[in-house]
Amino acid sequence: MIVNEIFESIQGEGKYTGQPCLFIRLSGCTRACSFCDTKYHTNGKKMTVEQVIKKIEKSKMQYIVWTGGEPMLQQDEIYKVFIRTDFKFHQIETNGDILPAVPGAFSYIGFSPKEKRVQDNVVAYVNQIELSDDFDYDIKIVTDLETEGVDMIDNATLLMPLTTYDKNKDLEIQRKVWKYCVANNIKYAPRIHVDIWGQKRGV
Q: CA 94 to CA 111: how far, in whole Å?
């Protein structure tokens, strides 16, 4: 596996915001988004499946978050890890470009599509899955309600305000998305790790 970093922290966004987790950030992505906040993911090192398993077993965290980049580029290796560590809660964050071949391998899938075509594929995919008590998902759309993500809001289960790292502009976007979520009964997804730590890595 090509791994950028493995660290313990707090989940800062999505359904499990506030949950202590072990993050496994894999290298490589299917995209090069201008607003990506983890462009450093490209700097990875090779780790064996066994080495990653040992990191998981050593961690006191019950929640494991697979992220990137785009972790589904290495889904075969992830499944090998999961088989040996299925006593943990495995969550994967994916842009949906590559759909999980074994959706049941994850306790929760956080889809964050970056274009309407991909979101349509994600919606069709999850509609075919028979949901159970041990599997869940969200479709999280990053938006400023002006240009980014506006064509995907209808199928979103979470809305997350776009982060520009301009404090005043970001506050304006957050408030706008907040009000939209209230008016349209959609769950708001904060980014508390960014609010507290900015662009600091490993948090």
A: 5
Mean pLDDT by 10 residues, the chain (203 residues): 96 94 96 80 92 97 96 96 94 95 88 96 87 76 95 96 93 97 97 83 79
Cα gap 163→177, rounded to integer Å: 12
Q: How many residues does the chain have?
A: 203
Cα separation, 144 vs 167, whole angstroms: 14
Please classify residue 130 by burial: count the beta carbons closer than 10 Å to its beta carbon, then call 0-12 exposed, 13-18 middle and 19+ buried: exposed
Sign of the dihedral through C-alpha 112, 45, 54, 60: negative
CATH number of 2-141: 3.20.20.70
DSSP string, 24-84: EEEP--S---TT-S-GGGG--EE--HHHHHHHHHH---SEEEEESS-GGGGHHHHHHHHHH
> pTM of the full predicted structure?
0.92
Which element (helix H / strand E) includes 111? strand 108-111
